[in-house]
Design brief:
BolA, alpha+beta, single chain, three-stranded mixed β-sheet, globular, two-stranded antiparallel sheet, BolA-like_sf, 138 residues
Length: 138
């Protein structure tokens, strides 16, 4: 059985993956093997997240929408599509965990519809909760 390789997303869809050029992988469909290379962004800061205008824009939107004291948005895997978010805001006082997450999602809805595929981790705390957590840190 023969076939050809193509980078066409319709033949070999990898909708949520990017690979470093140094990490080629081979995908096989029947007897057809295709080798594909994708590039990840390379401007990684000390915490392991990518500094990008997208992450900064999301931080600004969350900060403005929730009047947040602290917002950290990190590129979770270096692909620009998976993020982790940490927010400290007085707006969360009296809100359930689900409502807090909804508030954050509302602030970055546009990015979630286009560029960002998933929020892999979200931490939402009030200033009092954040202070209590810092008191417990070693």
């Amino acid at each position: 059985m023969g076939g050809t390789c193509s980078n066409s997303p319709t033949l070999f869809p990898w909708p949520h993956e990017t690979l470093r050029e140094e990490e080629p992988q081979t995908r096989t469909s029947g007897q057809v093997s295709c080798r594909r290379f994708c590039t990840r962004a390379t401007n990684v800061n000390d915490s392991g997240s990518i500094d990008s205008p997208l992450m900064e824009s999301m931080e600004k939107k969350i900060e403005e929408h929730l009047n947040a004291e602290s917002v950290i948005v990190k590129d979770a895997y270096g692909d620009g599509r998976h993020v982790s978010i940490d927010v400290v805001s007085t707006t969360f006082e009296g809100q359930s965990a689900v409502n807090r997450q909804r508030m954050v999602y509302k602030a970055i809805w546009e990015e979630l519809q286009s560029t960002v595929h998933a929020v892999d981790q979200m931490t939402t705390r009030t200033p009092a909760e954040a202070a209590a957590r810092n008191d417990k840190a070693p």
